[in-house]
Amino acid sequence: MATLVLDNGAYTAKIGYSHEKVSVIPNCQFRSKTARLKTFTANQIDEVKDPSGLFYILPFQKGYLVNWDVQRKVWDQLFGREMYKVDFADTSILITEPYFNFTSIQESMNEILFEEYQFQAALRINAGSLSAHKYFQDNSSELCCIVVDSGYSFTHIVPYCRGKKMKDGICRINVGGKLLTNHLKEIISYRQLHVMDETHVINQVKEDVCYVSQDFYKDMEIAKLKGEDNTVMRDYVLPDFSTIKKGFCKPREEMNFSGKYKTGEQILCLSNERFAVPETVFHPSDIGIQEMGIPEAIVNSVQNLPDEMQPHFFKNIVLTGGNTLFPGFRDRVFKDVRSLTPTDYEVSVVQPKNPVSYSWEGGKLLSDNPDFDEMVVTREDYEENGHCICEEKFDI
Amino acid sequence: MVEKKTSARSQEANQRRILDRATRQRRLNRQLEALEKDNFQDDPHANLPQLVKRLPQFDDRHESSKKRKKTRGDHFKLRFRKNFQALLEEQNLSVSEGPNYLTACAPPSKLPQRPFCAVCGFPSNYTCVSCGARYCCVKCLGTHQETRCLKWTV
Protein backbone atom coordinates (compact mmCIF):
# COMPACT_ATOMS: atom_id res chain seq x y z
CA MET A 1 0.00 0.00 0.00
CA ALA A 2 1.59 3.26 -1.13
CA THR A 3 1.53 6.51 0.78
CA LEU A 4 1.21 9.78 -1.06
CA VAL A 5 2.63 12.74 0.84
CA LEU A 6 1.08 16.06 -0.21
CA ASP A 7 2.14 19.33 1.40
CA ASN A 8 -0.81 21.40 0.16
CA GLY A 9 0.48 24.95 0.18
CA ALA A 10 -1.16 28.16 -0.99
CA TYR A 11 1.44 28.75 -3.66
CA THR A 12 2.98 25.37 -4.44
CA ALA A 13 2.03 21.81 -3.68
CA LYS A 14 4.89 19.57 -2.67
CA ILE A 15 3.83 16.09 -3.69
CA GLY A 16 5.41 12.69 -4.01
CA TYR A 17 5.10 9.09 -3.02
CA SER A 18 6.89 8.31 0.21
CA HIS A 19 9.37 6.06 -1.56
CA GLU A 20 10.15 8.58 -4.30
CA LYS A 21 11.31 12.16 -4.61
CA VAL A 22 9.28 15.30 -4.11
CA SER A 23 8.01 17.57 -6.90
CA VAL A 24 7.18 21.21 -6.30
CA ILE A 25 4.23 22.19 -8.48
CA PRO A 26 2.19 25.43 -8.52
CA ASN A 27 -1.10 24.87 -6.74
CA CYS A 28 -3.35 27.03 -8.91
CA GLN A 29 -4.77 27.56 -12.37
CA PHE A 30 -3.51 30.08 -14.89
CA ARG A 31 -5.16 31.98 -17.68
CA SER A 32 -3.31 33.85 -20.38
CA LYS A 33 -4.47 36.75 -22.51
CA THR A 34 -3.21 35.12 -25.67
CA ALA A 35 -4.32 31.53 -25.17
CA ARG A 36 -8.06 32.02 -25.06
CA LEU A 37 -10.35 29.15 -24.09
CA LYS A 38 -7.65 27.27 -22.26
CA THR A 39 -7.09 27.32 -18.55
CA PHE A 40 -3.72 25.92 -17.54
CA THR A 41 -3.60 23.83 -14.40
CA ALA A 42 -0.64 23.35 -12.06
CA ASN A 43 2.37 22.09 -13.98
CA GLN A 44 0.91 23.07 -17.35
CA ILE A 45 2.41 26.49 -16.81
CA ASP A 46 5.40 25.29 -18.82
CA GLU A 47 3.10 25.10 -21.84
CA VAL A 48 2.19 28.78 -21.68
CA LYS A 49 3.90 30.52 -24.56
CA ASP A 50 3.32 34.07 -23.39
CA PRO A 51 3.51 34.43 -19.61
CA SER A 52 2.99 38.19 -19.67
CA GLY A 53 -0.03 39.36 -17.71
CA LEU A 54 -0.67 35.85 -16.45
CA PHE A 55 -3.91 35.59 -14.48
CA TYR A 56 -3.74 33.44 -11.34
CA ILE A 57 -6.68 31.52 -9.94
CA LEU A 58 -5.75 30.37 -6.47
CA PRO A 59 -7.86 28.01 -4.38
CA PHE A 60 -6.48 29.57 -1.21
CA GLN A 61 -7.53 32.87 0.26
CA LYS A 62 -5.49 34.32 3.15
CA GLY A 63 -3.90 30.91 3.56
CA TYR A 64 -7.10 28.86 3.92
CA LEU A 65 -8.61 26.62 1.26
CA VAL A 66 -11.87 28.26 0.18
CA ASN A 67 -12.25 27.45 -3.50
CA TRP A 68 -12.76 23.72 -3.83
CA ASP A 69 -13.57 23.87 -7.56
CA VAL A 70 -10.07 24.98 -8.42
CA GLN A 71 -8.44 22.73 -5.83
CA ARG A 72 -10.21 19.68 -7.17
CA LYS A 73 -9.15 20.51 -10.71
CA VAL A 74 -5.54 20.81 -9.59
CA TRP A 75 -5.78 17.56 -7.64
CA ASP A 76 -7.39 15.82 -10.62
CA GLN A 77 -4.36 16.87 -12.63
CA LEU A 78 -1.88 15.78 -9.94
CA PHE A 79 -3.56 12.47 -9.18
CA GLY A 80 -4.39 11.72 -12.79
CA ARG A 81 -2.85 9.91 -15.68
CA GLU A 82 -0.28 12.53 -16.59
CA MET A 83 1.29 12.82 -13.21
CA TYR A 84 1.08 10.51 -10.27
CA LYS A 85 -1.47 7.99 -11.55
CA VAL A 86 -2.85 7.37 -8.12
CA ASP A 87 -4.66 4.10 -7.48
CA PHE A 88 -7.03 5.41 -4.85
CA ALA A 89 -8.16 2.12 -3.42
CA ASP A 90 -4.61 1.22 -2.55
CA THR A 91 -3.18 4.54 -1.42
CA SER A 92 -3.16 6.45 1.82
CA ILE A 93 -2.67 10.16 1.72
CA LEU A 94 -0.84 12.40 4.14
CA ILE A 95 -2.02 15.96 3.56
CA THR A 96 -1.15 19.22 5.31
CA GLU A 97 -3.43 21.97 6.54
CA PRO A 98 -2.85 25.44 7.97
CA TYR A 99 -2.98 26.07 11.69
CA PHE A 100 -6.43 26.63 13.23
CA ASN A 101 -8.09 25.44 10.07
CA PHE A 102 -11.84 26.08 10.10
CA THR A 103 -14.10 23.15 10.89
CA SER A 104 -16.12 23.54 7.72
CA ILE A 105 -12.95 23.33 5.63
CA GLN A 106 -11.80 20.27 7.56
CA GLU A 107 -15.14 18.58 7.02
CA SER A 108 -15.12 19.43 3.31
CA MET A 109 -11.62 17.99 3.05
CA ASN A 110 -12.77 14.75 4.72
CA GLU A 111 -15.67 14.46 2.34
CA ILE A 112 -13.61 15.13 -0.73
CA LEU A 113 -10.81 12.75 0.23
CA PHE A 114 -13.02 9.87 1.28
CA GLU A 115 -16.19 10.24 -0.74
CA GLU A 116 -14.99 11.73 -3.96
CA TYR A 117 -11.45 10.48 -4.39
CA GLN A 118 -12.00 7.43 -2.17
CA PHE A 119 -8.55 7.15 -0.67
CA GLN A 120 -7.99 4.10 1.48
CA ALA A 121 -6.79 6.13 4.46
CA ALA A 122 -5.93 9.72 5.23
CA LEU A 123 -3.95 11.71 7.74
CA ARG A 124 -4.41 15.46 8.03
CA ILE A 125 -1.68 17.31 9.88
CA ASN A 126 -0.09 20.76 10.15
CA ALA A 127 2.89 21.34 7.91
CA GLY A 128 4.94 22.62 10.83
CA SER A 129 4.33 19.38 12.75
CA LEU A 130 6.02 17.49 9.94
CA SER A 131 8.99 19.87 10.07
CA ALA A 132 9.19 19.44 13.83
CA HIS A 133 9.02 15.66 13.45
CA LYS A 134 11.94 15.71 11.05
CA TYR A 135 13.90 18.06 13.27
CA PHE A 136 13.43 15.82 16.32
CA GLN A 137 14.47 12.78 14.27
CA ASP A 138 17.67 14.50 13.17
CA ASN A 139 18.45 15.92 16.61
CA SER A 140 17.24 13.23 18.97
CA SER A 141 18.68 14.87 22.08
CA GLU A 142 16.46 17.94 21.80
CA LEU A 143 13.00 18.02 23.33
CA CYS A 144 11.70 21.40 22.23
CA CYS A 145 11.91 23.45 19.10
CA ILE A 146 10.31 26.48 17.50
CA VAL A 147 9.22 26.13 13.88
CA VAL A 148 9.05 29.37 11.90
CA ASP A 149 7.05 28.60 8.78
CA SER A 150 7.18 31.61 6.47
CA GLY A 151 5.21 30.95 3.33
CA TYR A 152 3.12 32.59 0.67
CA SER A 153 0.17 33.76 2.76
CA PHE A 154 1.51 34.33 6.25
CA THR A 155 4.18 33.33 8.75
CA HIS A 156 3.49 31.08 11.71
CA ILE A 157 5.72 30.75 14.75
CA VAL A 158 4.88 27.54 16.58
CA PRO A 159 6.60 26.05 19.64
CA TYR A 160 6.80 22.26 19.75
CA CYS A 161 7.53 20.25 22.85
CA ARG A 162 8.00 16.48 22.77
CA GLY A 163 6.37 16.34 19.34
CA LYS A 164 3.23 18.24 20.30
CA LYS A 165 2.52 21.82 19.32
CA MET A 166 1.78 24.27 22.10
CA LYS A 167 -1.36 26.04 20.99
CA ASP A 168 -0.97 28.98 23.36
CA GLY A 169 2.33 29.88 21.80
CA ILE A 170 1.25 29.96 18.19
CA CYS A 171 1.79 33.36 16.65
CA ARG A 172 0.71 34.39 13.14
CA ILE A 173 2.17 37.32 11.20
CA ASN A 174 0.10 38.23 8.16
CA VAL A 175 3.14 38.87 5.96
CA GLY A 176 4.07 36.32 3.33
CA GLY A 177 5.51 36.00 -0.15
CA LYS A 178 2.33 37.28 -1.79
CA LEU A 179 2.41 40.51 0.16
CA LEU A 180 6.07 41.08 -0.65
CA THR A 181 5.51 40.52 -4.37
CA ASN A 182 2.49 42.83 -4.43
CA HIS A 183 4.39 45.49 -2.53
CA LEU A 184 7.30 45.24 -4.95
CA LYS A 185 4.87 45.52 -7.88
CA GLU A 186 3.38 48.69 -6.41
CA ILE A 187 6.71 50.38 -5.84
CA ILE A 188 8.05 49.51 -9.27
CA SER A 189 4.79 50.64 -10.87
CA TYR A 190 5.03 54.00 -9.18
CA ARG A 191 8.74 54.62 -9.64
CA GLN A 192 9.60 53.03 -12.96
CA LEU A 193 7.32 50.91 -15.08
CA HIS A 194 3.71 49.75 -14.83
CA VAL A 195 3.93 46.08 -13.83
CA MET A 196 0.79 45.56 -11.76
CA ASP A 197 -0.38 42.78 -14.06
CA GLU A 198 2.91 40.91 -14.13
CA THR A 199 2.83 38.82 -10.98
CA HIS A 200 4.84 35.97 -12.46
CA VAL A 201 7.64 38.21 -13.75
CA ILE A 202 7.96 40.33 -10.62
CA ASN A 203 7.95 37.23 -8.45
CA GLN A 204 10.99 36.12 -10.41
CA VAL A 205 12.58 39.57 -9.88
CA LYS A 206 11.97 39.29 -6.15
CA GLU A 207 13.56 35.87 -5.97
CA ASP A 208 16.58 36.84 -8.06
CA VAL A 209 17.45 40.23 -6.72
CA CYS A 210 16.10 40.80 -3.20
CA TYR A 211 18.11 40.01 -0.12
CA VAL A 212 17.88 40.62 3.63
CA SER A 213 20.28 43.27 4.83
CA GLN A 214 22.28 42.73 8.01
CA ASP A 215 22.54 46.43 8.75
CA PHE A 216 19.53 48.26 7.41
CA TYR A 217 20.57 51.89 7.85
CA LYS A 218 24.06 51.30 6.54
CA ASP A 219 22.67 49.73 3.38
CA MET A 220 20.30 52.67 3.04
CA GLU A 221 23.26 55.06 3.11
CA ILE A 222 25.08 53.04 0.48
CA ALA A 223 21.99 52.95 -1.72
CA LYS A 224 21.85 56.75 -1.72
CA LEU A 225 25.25 57.06 -3.36
CA LYS A 226 25.54 57.59 -7.09
CA GLY A 227 27.41 55.70 -9.75
CA GLU A 228 29.95 53.03 -8.95
CA ASP A 229 29.96 53.69 -5.19
CA ASN A 230 26.41 52.39 -5.00
CA THR A 231 27.20 48.70 -4.60
CA VAL A 232 23.58 47.91 -3.80
CA MET A 233 22.09 48.95 -7.12
CA ARG A 234 21.39 46.31 -9.73
CA ASP A 235 19.90 46.39 -13.19
CA TYR A 236 17.41 43.68 -14.02
CA VAL A 237 16.62 42.83 -17.62
CA LEU A 238 12.93 42.07 -18.08
CA PRO A 239 11.90 39.23 -20.36
CA ASP A 240 10.14 40.04 -23.59
CA PHE A 241 9.22 36.41 -24.25
CA SER A 242 10.58 36.44 -27.79
CA THR A 243 14.34 36.78 -27.48
CA ILE A 244 14.67 36.87 -23.72
CA LYS A 245 12.59 34.08 -22.23
CA LYS A 246 13.44 34.62 -18.60
CA GLY A 247 14.50 37.78 -16.83
CA PHE A 248 17.94 38.03 -15.34
CA CYS A 249 20.05 40.41 -13.32
CA LYS A 250 22.89 42.10 -15.18
CA PRO A 251 26.27 41.38 -13.61
CA ARG A 252 28.05 44.42 -12.25
CA GLU A 253 30.71 44.41 -14.96
CA GLU A 254 28.16 45.01 -17.69
CA MET A 255 26.27 47.75 -15.90
CA ASN A 256 26.32 51.16 -17.48
CA PHE A 257 26.56 53.68 -14.66
CA SER A 258 26.48 56.85 -16.67
CA GLY A 259 23.75 57.41 -19.18
CA LYS A 260 21.24 55.06 -20.68
CA TYR A 261 21.54 51.68 -22.26
CA LYS A 262 21.63 51.55 -26.03
CA THR A 263 20.07 48.13 -26.52
CA GLY A 264 16.32 47.66 -26.75
CA GLU A 265 15.88 45.71 -23.55
CA GLN A 266 13.58 46.83 -20.78
CA ILE A 267 15.63 47.39 -17.65
CA LEU A 268 14.56 47.85 -14.05
CA CYS A 269 16.97 49.70 -11.84
CA LEU A 270 16.61 48.56 -8.24
CA SER A 271 18.53 49.93 -5.30
CA ASN A 272 16.84 50.26 -1.91
CA GLU A 273 13.90 48.06 -3.00
CA ARG A 274 16.28 45.10 -2.96
CA PHE A 275 16.44 45.01 0.82
CA ALA A 276 13.51 47.21 1.83
CA VAL A 277 10.96 44.70 0.56
CA PRO A 278 12.15 41.67 2.58
CA GLU A 279 12.56 44.01 5.56
CA THR A 280 8.77 43.95 5.80
CA VAL A 281 8.99 40.45 7.25
CA PHE A 282 11.11 41.79 10.08
CA HIS A 283 9.18 45.05 10.53
CA PRO A 284 5.60 44.82 9.16
CA SER A 285 5.02 48.30 10.58
CA ASP A 286 7.17 49.67 7.73
CA ILE A 287 4.20 49.39 5.40
CA GLY A 288 1.55 50.00 8.01
CA ILE A 289 0.69 46.50 9.26
CA GLN A 290 0.54 46.80 13.04
CA GLU A 291 2.13 43.49 13.93
CA MET A 292 5.46 42.30 15.26
CA GLY A 293 8.14 41.06 12.94
CA ILE A 294 9.59 37.54 13.05
CA PRO A 295 12.35 38.05 15.67
CA GLU A 296 10.07 39.94 18.07
CA ALA A 297 7.30 37.40 17.61
CA ILE A 298 9.68 34.50 18.34
CA VAL A 299 10.73 36.15 21.59
CA ASN A 300 7.13 37.04 22.45
CA SER A 301 5.93 33.53 21.81
CA VAL A 302 8.66 31.92 23.93
CA GLN A 303 8.15 34.33 26.79
CA ASN A 304 4.55 33.17 27.17
CA LEU A 305 5.78 29.66 27.92
CA PRO A 306 7.00 28.22 31.25
CA ASP A 307 10.35 29.65 32.37
CA GLU A 308 12.22 26.39 32.66
CA MET A 309 11.53 25.50 29.02
CA GLN A 310 12.53 28.83 27.48
CA PRO A 311 16.28 28.20 27.00
CA HIS A 312 15.48 24.98 25.16
CA PHE A 313 13.28 26.79 22.67
CA PHE A 314 15.86 29.45 21.89
CA LYS A 315 18.41 26.76 21.18
CA ASN A 316 16.26 25.19 18.48
CA ILE A 317 14.77 27.69 16.08
CA VAL A 318 14.01 26.15 12.67
CA LEU A 319 13.26 28.28 9.60
CA THR A 320 11.09 26.63 6.95
CA GLY A 321 8.97 27.82 4.06
CA GLY A 322 9.77 29.42 0.75
CA ASN A 323 9.84 32.95 2.08
CA THR A 324 13.01 32.17 4.05
CA LEU A 325 15.05 31.64 0.90
CA PHE A 326 16.22 35.28 0.78
CA PRO A 327 20.03 35.47 1.11
CA GLY A 328 20.96 36.59 4.59
CA PHE A 329 17.62 35.61 6.18
CA ARG A 330 19.02 33.16 8.68
CA ASP A 331 21.83 35.43 9.84
CA ARG A 332 19.47 38.33 10.30
CA VAL A 333 16.98 36.31 12.37
CA PHE A 334 19.87 35.10 14.52
CA LYS A 335 21.20 38.62 15.01
CA ASP A 336 17.83 40.09 15.98
CA VAL A 337 16.78 37.26 18.27
CA ARG A 338 20.21 37.28 19.91
CA SER A 339 19.90 40.97 20.71
CA LEU A 340 16.47 40.46 22.26
CA THR A 341 17.26 37.51 24.53
CA PRO A 342 19.22 37.51 27.81
CA THR A 343 22.90 36.64 27.41
CA ASP A 344 22.73 33.48 29.49
CA TYR A 345 20.41 31.83 26.96
CA GLU A 346 21.98 30.12 23.99
CA VAL A 347 20.41 31.07 20.67
CA SER A 348 20.70 28.91 17.60
CA VAL A 349 18.81 29.34 14.35
CA VAL A 350 18.82 26.51 11.83
CA GLN A 351 17.78 26.72 8.21
CA PRO A 352 17.65 23.38 6.38
CA LYS A 353 19.20 23.05 2.94
CA ASN A 354 15.80 23.05 1.30
CA PRO A 355 13.24 24.97 3.38
CA VAL A 356 10.47 24.49 0.82
CA SER A 357 10.41 20.71 0.92
CA TYR A 358 11.47 20.27 4.55
CA SER A 359 7.89 19.57 5.65
CA TRP A 360 7.49 17.09 2.84
CA GLU A 361 10.61 15.28 4.02
CA GLY A 362 9.06 15.18 7.48
CA GLY A 363 5.95 13.65 5.98
CA LYS A 364 8.04 11.02 4.26
CA LEU A 365 9.67 10.15 7.58
CA LEU A 366 6.32 10.03 9.32
CA SER A 367 4.86 7.66 6.78
CA ASP A 368 7.72 5.24 7.48
CA ASN A 369 7.03 5.45 11.20
CA PRO A 370 5.60 2.20 12.67
CA ASP A 371 2.87 4.22 14.43
CA PHE A 372 1.62 5.64 11.15
CA ASP A 373 -1.14 3.07 10.79
CA GLU A 374 -2.51 4.05 14.20
CA MET A 375 -2.58 7.73 13.28
CA VAL A 376 -4.51 7.52 10.02
CA VAL A 377 -8.26 7.33 9.63
CA THR A 378 -9.29 4.60 7.18
CA ARG A 379 -12.22 4.91 4.85
CA GLU A 380 -14.16 2.29 6.81
CA ASP A 381 -13.69 4.27 10.03
CA TYR A 382 -14.92 7.40 8.35
CA GLU A 383 -17.93 5.73 6.82
CA GLU A 384 -18.95 4.31 10.18
CA ASN A 385 -18.28 7.30 12.38
CA GLY A 386 -18.25 10.36 10.16
CA HIS A 387 -16.46 13.57 10.95
CA CYS A 388 -16.10 13.06 14.68
CA ILE A 389 -13.46 10.39 14.36
CA CYS A 390 -11.38 12.71 12.24
CA GLU A 391 -11.84 15.48 14.76
CA GLU A 392 -10.62 13.21 17.55
CA LYS A 393 -7.65 11.73 15.80
CA PHE A 394 -6.27 14.75 13.95
CA ASP A 395 -4.90 17.61 15.98
CA ILE A 396 -5.22 20.66 13.73
CA MET B 1 8.39 89.33 -18.02
CA VAL B 2 10.00 86.27 -16.61
CA GLU B 3 7.49 83.58 -15.59
CA LYS B 4 7.71 82.81 -11.94
CA LYS B 5 8.27 79.13 -11.30
CA THR B 6 5.56 78.04 -8.90
CA SER B 7 6.72 75.75 -6.20
CA ALA B 8 4.48 73.15 -4.68
CA ARG B 9 4.59 74.86 -1.33
CA SER B 10 3.18 78.09 -2.53
CA GLN B 11 -0.31 76.68 -2.94
CA GLU B 12 -2.67 78.73 -0.87
CA ALA B 13 -3.73 77.27 2.41
CA ASN B 14 -7.44 77.51 1.72
CA GLN B 15 -7.09 75.80 -1.68
CA ARG B 16 -5.61 72.68 -0.16
CA ARG B 17 -7.92 69.90 0.89
CA ILE B 18 -6.76 68.30 4.10
CA LEU B 19 -7.86 64.79 4.96
CA ASP B 20 -8.62 64.05 8.57
CA ARG B 21 -7.21 61.15 10.51
CA ALA B 22 -10.15 58.79 9.99
CA THR B 23 -10.04 59.22 6.22
CA ARG B 24 -6.30 58.70 6.17
CA GLN B 25 -6.69 55.50 8.18
CA ARG B 26 -9.39 54.28 5.80
CA ARG B 27 -7.14 54.93 2.79
CA LEU B 28 -4.33 53.06 4.48
CA ASN B 29 -6.60 50.11 5.19
CA ARG B 30 -7.72 50.01 1.58
CA GLN B 31 -4.09 50.03 0.43
CA LEU B 32 -3.31 47.14 2.77
CA GLU B 33 -6.27 45.16 1.52
CA ALA B 34 -5.09 45.72 -2.04
CA LEU B 35 -1.84 44.00 -1.10
CA GLU B 36 -3.82 40.83 -0.47
CA LYS B 37 -5.22 40.64 -3.99
CA ASP B 38 -4.24 37.77 -6.26
CA ASN B 39 -4.60 39.67 -9.50
CA PHE B 40 -4.86 43.29 -10.45
CA GLN B 41 -6.19 42.69 -13.90
CA ASP B 42 -9.53 41.19 -14.82
CA ASP B 43 -10.02 37.61 -15.83
CA PRO B 44 -9.11 37.39 -19.53
CA HIS B 45 -11.83 34.80 -20.03
CA ALA B 46 -14.54 36.82 -18.36
CA ASN B 47 -16.01 38.49 -21.41
CA LEU B 48 -15.65 35.71 -23.89
CA PRO B 49 -18.91 34.73 -25.54
CA GLN B 50 -19.90 31.24 -24.55
CA LEU B 51 -19.38 29.83 -28.02
CA VAL B 52 -17.80 26.60 -27.03
CA LYS B 53 -20.18 25.04 -24.59
CA ARG B 54 -18.51 21.80 -23.84
CA LEU B 55 -15.77 20.39 -25.97
CA PRO B 56 -15.92 16.60 -26.03
CA GLN B 57 -12.99 15.46 -23.99
CA PHE B 58 -11.38 12.69 -25.98
CA ASP B 59 -9.69 10.88 -23.17
CA ASP B 60 -10.72 7.87 -21.18
CA ARG B 61 -12.16 9.81 -18.32
CA HIS B 62 -15.59 8.37 -18.97
CA GLU B 63 -14.77 5.09 -17.27
CA SER B 64 -13.15 6.64 -14.25
CA SER B 65 -15.85 9.27 -13.74
CA LYS B 66 -18.49 6.56 -13.46
CA LYS B 67 -16.64 5.08 -10.52
CA ARG B 68 -16.44 8.37 -8.65
CA LYS B 69 -19.38 9.38 -6.53
CA LYS B 70 -20.36 12.89 -7.47
CA THR B 71 -21.45 15.13 -4.67
CA ARG B 72 -24.85 16.64 -5.30
CA GLY B 73 -25.05 19.86 -7.29
CA ASP B 74 -26.72 22.37 -4.97
CA HIS B 75 -25.23 21.10 -1.75
CA PHE B 76 -21.89 21.36 -3.44
CA LYS B 77 -22.35 24.93 -4.52
CA LEU B 78 -23.45 26.08 -1.09
CA ARG B 79 -20.80 24.29 0.92
CA PHE B 80 -17.75 24.52 -1.21
CA ARG B 81 -17.78 28.02 -2.55
CA LYS B 82 -17.86 30.33 0.42
CA ASN B 83 -15.32 33.04 0.65
CA PHE B 84 -12.90 33.54 3.49
CA GLN B 85 -14.93 36.11 5.43
CA ALA B 86 -18.02 33.89 5.42
CA LEU B 87 -16.04 30.91 6.69
CA LEU B 88 -14.46 32.97 9.43
CA GLU B 89 -17.81 34.23 10.65
CA GLU B 90 -19.25 30.74 10.50
CA GLN B 91 -16.52 29.59 12.83
CA ASN B 92 -17.91 31.92 15.48
CA LEU B 93 -14.63 32.42 17.24
CA SER B 94 -15.63 35.26 19.55
CA VAL B 95 -17.59 32.92 21.79
CA SER B 96 -15.06 30.10 21.91
CA GLU B 97 -12.35 29.99 24.53
CA GLY B 98 -8.78 28.99 24.20
CA PRO B 99 -6.36 29.77 21.40
CA ASN B 100 -7.92 30.15 17.96
CA TYR B 101 -7.30 31.90 14.65
CA LEU B 102 -8.02 35.36 16.02
CA THR B 103 -5.98 35.08 19.20
CA ALA B 104 -3.01 33.70 17.28
CA CYS B 105 -2.54 36.99 15.43
CA ALA B 106 0.70 38.74 16.37
CA PRO B 107 0.35 41.75 18.68
CA PRO B 108 1.53 45.22 17.57
CA SER B 109 5.26 45.78 17.62
CA LYS B 110 6.93 47.38 20.62
CA LEU B 111 9.35 49.22 18.35
CA PRO B 112 8.38 52.57 16.85
CA GLN B 113 7.17 52.72 13.27
CA ARG B 114 9.85 53.68 10.72
CA PRO B 115 8.44 55.92 8.02
CA PHE B 116 9.68 55.74 4.43
CA CYS B 117 9.27 58.21 1.60
CA ALA B 118 6.44 57.18 -0.69
CA VAL B 119 8.35 58.40 -3.74
CA CYS B 120 11.90 57.12 -3.38
CA GLY B 121 11.82 54.67 -0.49
CA PHE B 122 14.48 56.22 1.71
CA PRO B 123 13.77 57.10 5.34
CA SER B 124 11.49 60.11 5.53
CA ASN B 125 11.15 62.90 8.01
CA TYR B 126 8.20 64.88 6.72
CA THR B 127 4.50 64.32 6.09
CA CYS B 128 2.34 65.74 3.31
CA VAL B 129 -0.12 68.17 4.86
CA SER B 130 -3.00 67.21 2.58
CA CYS B 131 -2.98 63.45 2.48
CA GLY B 132 -0.53 62.26 5.10
CA ALA B 133 1.93 60.55 2.78
CA ARG B 134 5.59 60.66 3.80
CA TYR B 135 8.37 62.30 1.84
CA CYS B 136 12.07 62.86 2.41
CA CYS B 137 12.98 66.00 0.50
CA VAL B 138 11.41 68.87 -1.39
CA LYS B 139 12.01 67.19 -4.75
CA CYS B 140 10.03 64.14 -3.63
CA LEU B 141 7.30 66.40 -2.30
CA GLY B 142 7.06 67.98 -5.74
CA THR B 143 6.76 64.58 -7.42
CA HIS B 144 4.17 63.50 -4.89
CA GLN B 145 2.02 66.59 -5.32
CA GLU B 146 2.08 66.31 -9.08
CA THR B 147 1.40 62.63 -9.39
CA ARG B 148 -0.33 61.22 -6.42
CA CYS B 149 -1.59 63.61 -3.81
CA LEU B 150 -5.35 63.12 -3.61
CA LYS B 151 -5.30 62.01 -7.22
CA TRP B 152 -5.04 58.30 -6.75
CA THR B 153 -7.16 55.82 -4.85
CA VAL B 154 -6.85 52.10 -4.76
Automatic annotation (TrEMBL), chain A:
Xref: InterPro entries: Actin, ATPase_NBD
Superkingdom to which the source organism belongs: Eukaryota
Protein name in UniProt: Actin-related protein 6
Signal peptide bounds: none
Family: Belongs to the actin family.
Coiled coil location: none
Originating species: Huso huso (Beluga)
Pfam family, one: Actin
TrEMBL record, chain B:
Biased composition regions of type Basic residues, renumbered to the chain: 64-74
Start and end residues of each stretch annotated as Disordered: 1-74
InterPro entries: Vps71/ZNHIT1, Znf_HIT
Domain HIT-type residue range list: 117-149
Domain of life: Eukaryota
PANTHER family, alphabetized: ZINC FINGER HIT DOMAIN CONTAINING PROTEIN 1 (PTHR13093)
Stated name of the protein: Zinc finger HIT domain-containing protein 1
Source lineage: Eukaryota, Metazoa, Chordata, Craniata, Vertebrata
